[in-house]
Design goal:
The structure holds 2 protein chains of 2 kinds. By secondary structure, chain A is mostly beta strands. Helices cover 0% and strands 52% of the residues of chain A. Classes of the chains: A mainly beta, B mainly beta.
Amino acid sequence: ILNVEQSPQSLHVQEGDSTNFTCSFPSSNFYALHWYRWETAKSPEALFVMTLNGDEKKKGRISATLNTKEGYSYLYIKGSQPEDSATYLCASTPMDSSYKLIFGSGTRLLVRP
Amino acid sequence: DTAVSQTPKYLVTQMGNDKSIKCEQNLGHDTMYWYKQDSKKFLKIMFSYNNKELIINETVPNRFSPKSPDKAHLNLHINSLELGDSAVYFCASSPGTFSGNTIYFGEGSWLTVV
C-alpha cells in the first residue's frame, strides 16, 4: 500500500446499529495514525492519535485499534446515533516525513433515525 | 472562541486575480499548516511553518506563497488564480512538529475561480 486507503467509502446504518470501518496505511513507513470526525462546513475534529502497535483508544461510544505490523486501523461506533453522521478521516504520519499527515478519502457515515 | 480561524470562508473570484486567505490560531501553537482538499476529496498538505520558518513546501506552484508574520498567523497568498485552484483550503496548527501531536483544523475556505 503506497497511500492511505479507507473503506467503505460510504455507509448507511440505522440508529442503534454498531458499525466499523477500516483505514489501511503503509506499514513500512509509519509513525502515527490519526482519526478525525468531519462534518461539512465545520472543522475536522480530532478523535484519536495512535502510535503503538496494539493501541486501543476510546472516546464515549467511539473506539479505535491499531495494527502497525499489517498496516491497518479500525474505527468502531457502538450504538450509532444520528449525530454520529459525518465523514470519518484517517491520516498516517510517515516516519520519513514526520511533519505531515497523509489523509485517506474518508468514510461517509449516515445514521438514519 | 474559535481555535483556528480562517477568512474568508467563501471566496468567488475571476481567473488571473490575486487573492489571500488569512489564518489565525489562538492555541499558542508553534506549528501551522495549509492543506488543500483536492478534486478527489483528499486533504493534502501544501505548507508547514514552525515558529515562522518554512519546514514543508510540497510540490505547490510558486503562485502560492505562504506568509507567517508571527507564529499565530499563517496567511496564504495566491497569484494569477487559475480555474484549477478552485478547492477548499484548510489551515491547521499543532503544538510542535512531533508526529504524535494532534493537529487542529480551521473550518476551511471555499475558493471558486470563474
